[in-house]
Amino acid sequence: MKKIILAFAILGTLGIHAQTAEERGLEIAKAAEQADLGFNSSTVDLKMTLKNKNGQTSERDLTTKTLELTEDGDKSLIVFNSPKDVKGTATLTFTHKTVSDDQWLFLPSIKRVKRISSNNKSGPFVGSEFAYEDLSSQEVEKYTYKFLKENGSLLIVEQDPLDPKSGYTKRVVTYNKDKGYRVEKIDFYDRKGSLLKTLTYSDYKQYKNKFWRAGVFNMVNVQSNKETRLEFTNYNFEVNLADEDFSQVALKRAGN
Hints:
mainly beta, 13 strands, 43% strand
């Protein structure tokens, strides 16, 4: 016991302190952010498969554009291409680091843009198991952090949203430190603190020798037994997108 106390005394004298769980959790989140910086902009095609609790499925085709910003959160534009009942529906998201995100929904049936209020961010995105807030880029400043455990190359970190209007009390995120700190899984906990849904990432590919992108997202709602699967194809990092590609005018144009 005396040796242990002496060791801590020496560390204190040298100005060295043991890293807290909060400090390590934040460090991991920053490492993941740093590993993905510099992609600038991208486009990708998606197939969304919805599965209800009885196992019945339906499919939708989408396109997503993303613009990377460093001074604030990223911007994204999602457009539904099929089937007919959702074709032209489009969502524009401006992620922010320290304030609530801005989101708009274009509804082709009424040819109007509807702003999504902060109170509705936890609602389902066009009938899927993804919430509107899940569409935002995951900026480090949006959460507080706590390192939970390490399992080989996997690092598990609790993230608590700072936004009081978030639909989650916490997210438990699994990072792969040997693969650019890419995310392998996220467990989402509802406002009562119960596990709500689990998102797993698979079929990863590396682009431009740096950026890891999953080919499949699979979101399972453990409370309703519903599921949404996203399959990504045709990633393109050579597009030169700009702010004007992510305006409300661009949102309407994309949906028509």
